[in-house]
Design brief:
- By secondary structure, the chain is mostly beta strands.
- It contains no helices and eleven strands.
- The strands form three sheets. Strands 4-1-7-8-11 form a five-stranded antiparallel β-sheet, with no helix packed on it. The protein has a four-stranded antiparallel β-sheet with strand order 5-6-10-9, with no helix packed on it. The chain has a two-stranded antiparallel ribbon with strand order 2-3.
- A hairpin with a 4-residue loop joins strand 7 and strand 8.
């Protein structure tokens, strides 16, 4: 079955709020209902890249999400998990309540001309031994 993989929204929650999350197989999970998600204002459409490679006989998955935002994402040292909503109605989760945690990098731009891009460029990367988890809310 083909799915639409166009990311239409990004939300985040502290990784610690995902305690009690459990997986159903290798690609699906159940998230506690009490989790509060904070929306992130993003310019349409964030770019999601998923790749895998074998390192020392272990398959590793790397997920990278890049987007532009006018929102101040705050302290990048806080550990957050990110929920992505796809145009087809499904969701994906970058991160969990345990290590390894996603890494957020924010690049602030002060352009030469006022007409150039002034949005913050954010990049979230996560390397794990499991593929990106999907679910329906």
């Amino acid at each position: 079955m083909n799915r639409i993989h166009l990311v239409i929204s990004v939300e985040r929650t502290p990784c610690s709020s995902l305690d009690g999350m459990f997986g159903l197989g290798t690609e699906h999970m159940v998230i506690p209902e009490a989790v509060q998600w904070e929306p992130i204002d993003v310019r349409p459409h964030p770019v999601l890249t998923i790749s895998d490679k074998i390192e020392e006989k272990v398959r590793m998955w790397t997920t990278t999400l890049k987007f532009f935002t006018c929102q101040d994402l705050g302290d990048t040292s806080t550990r957050y998990a990110y929920r992505l909503k796809f145009a087809g109605g499904s969701y994906a989760l970058i991160g969990s309540s345990s290590r390894p945690f996603p890494v957020l990098t924010v690049q602030l731009t002060a352009p030469e001309k006022p007409s150039d891009n002034q949005w913050n460029e954010a990049s979230i990367s996560w390397a794990t031994a499991f593929p990106l988890q999907t679910f329906f809310a």
